[in-house]
Each structure stands twice: as C-alpha cells, then as structure tokens.
C-alpha cells in the first residue's frame, strides 16, 4: 500500500495543493512552506486515532481562519453569502493488498498511474494495462457546525460523496487496515511507552492482539492502599478531627471518614500514568523513559516502530524532523530502517545527512505562493551539473539552497564568504537600513565559476525559489544569460572583488587591518613593513587567502563608511527586494521596491 496522491483545500496555510508522491519521499522546503501541514492533512484522512480528538479541527486549522459564510465582495448588496469554507483532504491509495481489495471492494477504483485518470474497469482499449492499478480514494471533510456551535469532521469513501445519498464513513477500523503511522517531532516520544490510546506501545499490543487484563487488579490494589495512614506522619490525625467535625453538621450518609487514595481509580487515568522506567548509567536506578536524553528516546521510538512493521506488513510511516537530537550516523540509520520496514516512508527534514539518502526522484521540493497555493517541483539538474558532482557536493553546495526560499548565487568562494559578512556587519552598525542575509532568509551558494551561475540560477528557479546572483564584470552576452535566470543580478564593474575592495575603501581601514594581520611568512619577507605599500601588500594577501575568508575578515572590522559603496547599495537593494513592507490600506498587494543600484 502507498499514498499515490494527496489533494488539500483550506487547511492551515494551504489554500490548495495536489501532490503526487513516490514510494519513498523526503519533503523539503523553507520553514512555514507547509511540509508538516501536508503530513497533518494525511493524518486527518488516514490516522486511526486522529479523529478521536474532539473537536477534530479548530479555528486555526482553516486557511486564514475563515470558517464562516462570507459575503461576496463582487455580488450586489443583499446577495446570498458565499458558503462557509470547508477543509478537504483527498488521499488516493494504490498498491492495495488482496486483503485490502476484498475489504474495500465496492469503493475500489482503477487508476492510470501515468496520467492520474480514474476508470470504472481495469482494462480499456488503447491503455497500457500495466499502468492501471486498483486504487482507493478517501476524503476528510472538516467544517463548522453552526447548530452545535462546534467543529466537526469525518473521513468518507470519496466515491460515496457523489454516488450515495448518505456518504459512507471511512471508519477507524478501515483506517487500521491501511496502516498509516505519523510520528511528530518532539511529540511522539513523550508517551511512546505509556498505555494511552494511540501510543506506540498501545499500537503494538493491539497488533499482537494482546489485551492486558490488569486494570481491575491494579485498581483493587490501589483502592486498598491508604496513603499517609501512619499516625507518625500527622496527616491521619488531622483527617480524624475533620471527620469528627463533619459528624456535628451532617448525617452519616452524607460522607464520613475522609482519607487519601493514590488516584481517582479509573482505567483511563491509569492509562495516562502507567509508564515504563529505564535504568540509566551502569547502576540499577531507573527513571521514566521520557526523562532520558532526546536522542535515546528517538532511538527507542525507532525500535518500537520496527516492532510495528514486523507485525503489520504494508505500513506507511510518516516522520517529522527525524534528525532531532540525533547524530548523523543515526539519522541515516533511521531512514534506512524505515525504508526497509515500510511499504512507503515520508519524511520532512532539514538535514543534509537525511536528504542525501534520497534520490532526485524521491526528493519533493515544496513551495507556496502568497495566496496559499502549495506546489511541488522535481529537481532537474542542468547539463553542466552531472549527477556525480551533485552527490559529491550535495552538503557543501546544493543542500542549503534546496532548503531555502531565497538563493543568492555567488561567482566564487570569496564572494560567497564576503557578501554575507558585509551584510551582517552593516546590519550591526545600522539596523534601520541594512539586514543580514540570515534575517532575510537568503542563503548563498558558491557557483565555483561565473559560467555556472546561469545554470544554477535555472535549477533553483525551477524549484520555485527566488534567485539572485553576484559576480564580477561580465561580457554583454554572459550578463544577459545570467539575467534571464535570476530575479536580480548584482554585478560590479571591477574584474575581481579584490579590486572592488581595495579601490573603494579608506586608507585608514587598510592600514588598521594590516596591523591586525598575522602575515604568512612568505608575504612577511616580501613586505617587511606592509603599511608602506598597503594596497599592493593586501592585494597579495587577498589573492593568497582567496576563498579563505581574507576579504571577509577585512569587511568584518570596517565601519559603515569603510565598506565600499557598491556593497552597501547591494545590501540595501537586496533588503528592499526580500523585506518589502506591507502596502498602505487601499493600495495594491505589492509595493514597488526601491533599487538604488538602478
């Protein structure tokens, strides 16, 4: 069993989305793109315990918080209201087992997996039968019920919504036959080894058809335990005096003999408080499992998942941020094990160690527009970037760009290290005008050479990223090629960034930096007193330290006026492009950005 596709409407930050998922996938994108919302939406439709929460959705689960009927701004005065928005999540499941096909027989449809079209029968003339698979569609609908003044939600067989007068619910038992397990980051471990409904231990016991007959015995034992009955503690004496006073005011039938018990003696309460203890260190002392280190808890969760997968074949695992508190080698182990144990695994992650475990076809890049439309993109490498190079340089050159919303492609290592330092330094000196690249959500990618800028720009642009470029002076055709692939090209008029710095800073800044430097021996011999010819000496030093933070260190000790004007204006322009203030009331959706470099 696997999730072929998911369609989402009006859920959290997603107004609309349709995603087609591979057998194993990692969902990537900048923060607040909607990665977790996709998994939460699938859980609404397929999670066996998700809808036991009451209410199943709330105000904040609706796109922009709209769940009431709305007035149509284009309709004449007095016209009917637009129907109240509903949350809809449609999930299409393929690769059904024979048991699942038998159970859901009436609801099974036939899907052409190459086109996404549905048919009423498995074999059609002119259609490749191998591409047609049995499929099951289910739809979650969440809405506000004004009569109850509350939110309601349920999952239905999708076909029944259009074909039957009364839609057929996709029940909790049906969902258990689908085997979808969603593991939320930092939230799963806190109750994994408890006996709460829906905990991992509870799931394992249900899969093994074990029903612990311990509640009555435990409740009886606790009922017979009188807390603080020892007179030495003094509590029993106080309770006895209360009992005597009580008899003076009320008859015996109203209540006598107050005493302390361990709990309120219900099995639901016991489910919440019964938990596993684990010995720590080399001694015998045991502590609650949730008090262990976060990494230990996560690995414990993985061990329990393997138990679930062994007992329930055809399971789908969805996992948020598997890298939390886990070292790189363990991150890789988690991905490897879950892929091996499950029919399908879905991850969200910001870790390069996890991302590189997935092929290009398995990497689903998500982007979201300002009006809430979520889209996916496939990584298509340009001709100049061979797959071998992509794999070799993934951590150092490609990963950060895939995880960001905005990408600045720098010509080389010197530009890639220097420009962020200049922006950070300027933001420290004058935060009202400048902003660091980190604050703007811009990551810098070292293109390695000017000839790679356009190709990398095209790559990130195709993935829905806002792309910018930074380089030395280019020929007319080269400049045009780059500009065609990026939103804004920052190109200075010097042949190298070293000349840009040396020609456009102050003598005082150069001499101060020369005094601060620990000159390498060969340059110290060549320039015994570098301040005498500081420009020449520093040009040699910058060339020697190219790509090794030489210019970045110089910029980090400059005041605002000592940083070349071109760099200052580039930082202002980038801020205006990435941090556009909201338009005044009554004006357009976007405000034209001021470009001091134009």
Q: Top keywords for this entry?
A:
598 residues, alpha/beta, 4-stranded parallel sheet, 19 strands
Write a short abstract of this structure.
This protein is an alpha/beta fold.
Written overview of the protein:
- The protein is of the alpha/beta class.
- Helix content is 36%, strand content 18%.
- It contains 23 helices and 19 strands.
- Strands 1, 2, 3, 4, 5, 6, 7, 8, 9, 12, 13, 14 and 15 form a 13-stranded mixed β-sheet that branches.
- Helix 5 runs parallel beside helix 9 (294-311), helix 9 packs parallel to helix 10 and helix 14 runs parallel beside helix 22.
- The longest helix has 18 residues, at 294-311.
- The protein is globular and about 100 Å long.
- The two termini are 56 Å apart.
- 35% of the residues are buried.
Strands, total number? 19
Mean pLDDT: 83
Distance N to C terminus: 56 Å
User: Largest beta sheet, briefly?
Assistant: 13 strands, mixed
Tally of separate helices = 23
Portion of residues within helices: 25-40%
Percent range for β-strand residues: 15-25%
The outline comes out as globular
Q: Indicate the radius of gyration in whole angstroms.
A: 32 Å
Global structural class: alpha/beta
Which runs of at least 5 residues are low in confidence (pLDDT < 50)?
A: 585-598
How do the strands and helices of this protein lay out in sequence?
Blueprint lengths: L1 E10 L2 E7 L3 E5 L6 H12 L40 E8 L3 H6 L5 E4 L4 E3 L12 E14 L4 E8 H6 L8 H7 L1 E4 L16 H8 L7 H9 L11 H13 L19 H7 L3 E3 L6 E3 L5 H18 L4 E5 L7 H14 L2 E5 L3 H4 L7 E6 L4 E5 L9 H6 L1 H9 L3 E5 L2 H17 L7 H4 L1 E5 L6 H10 L3 E6 L4 H8 L4 E4 L5 H7 L3 H10 L4 H6 L7 H11 L5 H7 L8 H14 L20
Parallel strand pairs: 2-15, 3-13, 3-14, 9-12, 12-13, 16-17, 16-18, 18-19
Antiparallel strand pairs: 1-2, 1-4, 4-7, 5-6, 5-7, 7-8, 10-11, 14-15
């Amino acid at each position: 069993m696997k999730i072929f596709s998911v369609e989402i409407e009006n859920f959290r930050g997603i107004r609309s989305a349709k995603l087609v998922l591979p057998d194993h996938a990692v969902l990537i994108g900048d923060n607040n793109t909607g990665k977790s919302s996709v998994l939460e939406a699938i859980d609404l439709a397929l999670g066996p315990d998700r809808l036991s929460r009451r209410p199943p959705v709330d105000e904040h689960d609706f796109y922009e918080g709209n769940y009431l009927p709305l007035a149509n701004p284009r309709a004449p005065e007095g016209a009917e209201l637009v129907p109240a928005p509903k949350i809809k999540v449609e999930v299409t499941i393929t690769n059904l087992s024979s048991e699942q096909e038998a159970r859901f027989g009436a609801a099974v449809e036939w899907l052409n997996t190459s086109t996404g079209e549905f048919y009423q029968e498995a074999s059609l003339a002119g259609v490749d039968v191998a591409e047609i698979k049995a499929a099951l569609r289910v739809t979650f609908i969440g809405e506000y019920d004004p009569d109850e003044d509350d939110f309601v939600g349920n999952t239905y067989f999708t076909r029944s919504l259009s074909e039957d007068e009364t839609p057929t619910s996709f029940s909790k038992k049906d969902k258990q036959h689908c085997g979808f397990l969603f593991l939320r980051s930092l939230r799963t471990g806190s109750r994994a080894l408890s006996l709460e409904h829906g905990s991992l231990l509870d799931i394992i016991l249900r899969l093994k058809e074990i029903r612990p007959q311990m509640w009555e015995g435990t409740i009886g034992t606790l009922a017979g335990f009188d807390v603080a009955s020892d007179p030495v503690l003094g509590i029993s004496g106080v309770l006895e005096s209360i009992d005597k006073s009580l008899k003076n005011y009320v008859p015996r039938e109203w209540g006598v003999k107050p005493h302390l018990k361990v709990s309120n003696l219900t099995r639901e309460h016991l489910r919440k408080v019964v938990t596993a203890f684990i010995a720590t260190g080399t001694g015998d002392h045991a502590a609650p499992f949730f008090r262990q280190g976060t990494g230990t808890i996560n690995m414990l969760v993985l061990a329990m998942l393997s138990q679930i997968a062994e007992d329930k074949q055809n399971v789908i695992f969805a996992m948020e941020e598997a890298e939390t508190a886990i070292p790189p080698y363990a991150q890789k182990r988690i991905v490897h094990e879950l892929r091996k144990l499950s029919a399908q695994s879905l991850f969200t992650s910001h870790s390069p160690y996890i991302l590189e475990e997935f092929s290009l076809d398995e990497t689903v890049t998500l982007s979201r527009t300002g009006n809430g439309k979520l889209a996916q993109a496939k990584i298509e490498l340009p001709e100049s970037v061979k797959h071998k190079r992509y794999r070799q340089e993934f951590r150092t050159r490609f990963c950060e760009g895939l995880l960001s919303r905005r990408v600045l492609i720098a010509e080389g290592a010197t530009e890639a290290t220097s420009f962020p330092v200049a922006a950070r330094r300027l933001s420290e000196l004058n935060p009202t005008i400048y902003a660091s690249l980190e604050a703007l959500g811009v990551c810098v990618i070292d293109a390695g050479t000017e000839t790679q800028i356009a190709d990398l720009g095209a790559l990130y642009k195709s993935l829905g990223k806002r792309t910018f470029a930074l380089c030395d002076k280019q020929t007319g055709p080269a400049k045009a090629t780059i500009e065609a692939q990026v939103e804004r090209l920052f190109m200075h008029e010097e042949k190298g960034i070293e000349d840009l710095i040396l020609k456009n800073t102050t003598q005082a800044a150069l001499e101060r930096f020369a005094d601060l430097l620990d000159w390498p021996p060969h340059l110290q011999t060549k320039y015994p007193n570098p301040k005498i010819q500081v420009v020449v000496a520093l040009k040699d030093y910058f060339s020697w330290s190219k790509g090794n933070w030489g210019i970045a260190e110089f910029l980090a000790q400059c005041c605002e006026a000592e940083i070349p004007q071109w760099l200052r204006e580039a930082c202002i322009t980038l801020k205006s492009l990435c941090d556009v203030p909201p338009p005044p009331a009554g004006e357009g959706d976007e405000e034209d950005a001021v470009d001091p470099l134009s």
